[in-house]
Structure formats: structure tokens, C-alpha cells
Design brief:
binds manganese (II) ion, Indigoidine synthase fold, about 300 residues, binds pseudouridine-5'-monophosphate, 13 strands, about 15% strand, alpha/beta, 11-stranded mixed beta sheet, 13 helices
């Protein structure tokens, strides 16, 4: 038995056949500083509700896999220090040991599948890191997208990653990468990475139809929807690049490896750009939450 706990709002939505959107919790514990992490988590849940779906923020707490968190849970996670960041490799072990941890995109996809939720909205996914040809640092998020049938809405991938290699790996793994409303693959803080996305769709209906078609064909794996940050909040690529370069040098100086790399780079980039990159990050997550809610409505009642 998997020890799942549904938040009351999520259980009610499942009984009523309402659309659900899974939300990750690593963005809360490792992706943003307090109190912006808590405010953002609450605002993202509110955005999902306002757009007509029910949010389910997922985390492992004392051996239970929570599908949806209460206000008190969210607050505790946002304030906690040294929370474990769980992905596919360690999620089951920590549940078995009655431990706690926040969930990455990969782990949230696994949680969503267990709960019959087919859409996950987040900020940015993990990907192939720059220098991966020597470090082999490739996020487990990519392989999860090829195995677990959840449509993930993100603002592309961050410039801390190697975007061309990330797209190559996604293609190798057979993951559809769909730019929303434009041809270019977005680069998180900026709308255009300079790379063309393999697929383009202009409505949540089309994305939902593609999701249902994959399901009908029995194809494992999900879809990556790359939703560009709203123009009013974007930060030009050159501005971000300077901070990214410096953050990467700092990470190399410290000899960081494994799961420490992404959180360290994120927090360095925030420090180096001041509040601006954080504000952009918050806006793009909200934007993804709204699109995720629309896609979930068009996918229809979860099939369990
Ligand atoms: N990218 C972001 N913000 C984040 C993350 C990635 O812009 O918060 C988090 C997500 O939870 C993602 C995880 O799933 O980092 C990827 O970590 P890794 O590269 O160690 O797989
Ligand atoms: Mn990694």
C-alpha cells in the first residue's frame, strides 16, 4: 500500500470529477527564498482555482505522500530548513523510512500519476546541465517525462542549463516539446531561447487533445508544454547570461555535484540579479498555473 493522503479539497474534486493540477514543492523549499516561496505557493494555488481547476501541491511528510497540502503544511514547508529534495531515485526510500521531503518535477509526476492527475504546472524543469559531457549531470525530470503520462507546463528551461542539449535529449526520449503560442522554445526569464521548439500549439484544447491521443495510443510518458513568460515580465537574455556565467563559476569553484547543483545556481542567480529575477519567476509560475488549469479542464475527468 502506498501511504497517500489527499487534502480535503482534492478528495472532494476527485469525487466530483473536477479538473486537478498537480504542483511541485521543491520550488518552495529550494527554488525561492522565504517569504516569497510561501506567497508564491499560495498565489499559484489561487490562480489554479480562479482558472477553474483544483490545485494539489505534492510533498512527502513523515512517510505519507500528500496530494494537496493544507495552509499549515505549506507554511511549515516554506519555513523549514534542510528539507530533502526528492526525485524518482529517493522518493520511495524516504517514504519507506517515514521521512519527509519536497518533490521535484519528476517526483511530482509520479505522485500525480498515483493520484490520477494528468497535468502538472511548475516554473522550470530540470534538464541537461552545461558541461554535462564531463559531469553527466542530466536531471531525472527528462526521463520522467518519457515514462510518466503527465502533461507538464513550464516556462521552458533555465539558462543555467544547456538548452540545445536539453532539447536533443527530450527528442531522443520521445518527449513532445510544445511551445505555446509561438515557434520559439522559451528560456524561462526570456520568451525566446533562440531555438525553435519541435512543436507549437495555440490553445489549451489542442494540448489536451494531444494528451488524450497519446493516452489512447498507449504511449507511455507525458508532454512538455513550454509556456513563454508574459512579455511585461521578461528579462532580456544578455542580462541574465552575466549572472548565470558567474553562478556557474561559483558552483565549479565549490565543486558542487548531484542534487545540490540546481538549488545553488538558482539562489546565486537571484542574489546576482536582485529582486528582478525572482519577480519574473513568480509571474511565470502563475502564468503556467493558469494554462495548466485550462488544459486540465479540456482533458476532462481523470481516468484511473
Ligand atoms: N528549475 C527552476 N526552478 C526549480 C527547479 C528547476 O527553474 O525550482 C527545481 C524543480 O523542482 C526541478 C528540479 O524538478 O529543480 C530539478 O533538479 P535536478 O536538476 O537536480 O533534477
Ligand atoms: Mn542534476
Amino acid at each position: 500500500m502506498i501511504p497517500l493522503i489527499y487534502a480535503p479539497e482534492v478528495a472532494e474534486a476527485q469525487r466530483a470529477g473536477q479538473p486537478l493540477v498537480a504542483l511541485e514543492s521543491t520550488i518552495i523549499t529550494h527554488g525561492m527564498p522565504y517569504p516569497q516561496n510561501l506567497e508564491t505557493a499560495q498565489a499559484v494555488e489561487a490562480a489554479v482555482r480562479k482558472a477553474g481547476a483544483v490545485p494539489a501541491t505534492c510533498a512527502v511528510l513523515r512517510g505519507f505522500l500528500h496530494i494537496g497540502l493544507t495552509e499549515a503544511h505549506l507554511e511549515r514547508l516554506a519555513k523549514a530548513r534542510n528539507v530533502a529534495k526528492l526525485s524518482r531515485a529517493d522518493m520511495a526510500a524516504v517514504i519507506a523510512q517515514k521521512g519527509s521531503g519536497s518533490l521535484t518535477v519528476a517526483a511530482t509526476m509520479i505522485a500525480a500519476r498515483l493520484a490520477g492527475i494528468e497535468v502538472h504546472a511548475t516554473g522550470g524543469i530540470g534538464g541537461v546541465h552545461r558541461g554535462a559531457e564531463t559531469t553527466f549531470d542530466i536531471s531525472a525530470d527528462l526521463r520522467e517525462l518519457s515514462e510518466t503520462p503527465v502533461t507538464v507546463v513550464a516556462a521552458g528551461a533555465k539558462a543555467i542549463l544547456d538548452l540545445p542539449k536539453t532539447l536533443e535529449v527530450l527528442e531522443t526520449l520521445g518527449v513532445p516539446v510544445i511551445a505555446f503560442g509561438q515557434d520559439a522554445f522559451p528560456a524561462f526569464w526570456s520568451r525566446d531561447s533562440g531555438l525553435k521548439a519541435p512543436l507549437r500549439m495555440d490553445s489549451p484544447q489542442q494540448i489536451a487533445a494531444a494528451h488524450r491521443t497519446r493516452r489512447a495510443m498507449g504511449l507511455p510518458g507525458g508532454q512538455l508544454v513550454a509556456n513563454p513568460i508574459p512579455a511585461a515580465h521578461e528579462i532580456p537574455r544578455d542580462e541574465i547570461e552575466m549572472a548565470v556565467t558567474s553562478a556557474l563559476e561559483d558552483a565549479a569553484d565549490r565543486g558542487l555535484t548531484g542534487k545540490e547543483v540546481t538549488p545553488f545556481l538558482l539562489s546565486r542567480v537571484y542574489d546576482l540579479t536582485g529582486g528582478r529575477s525572482l519577480e519574473a519567476n513568480i509571474e511565470l509560475v502563475l502564468n503556467n498555473a493558469r494554462l495548466g488549469a485550462q488544459i486540465a479542464q479540456h482533458i476532462g475527468t481523470p481516468q484511473r
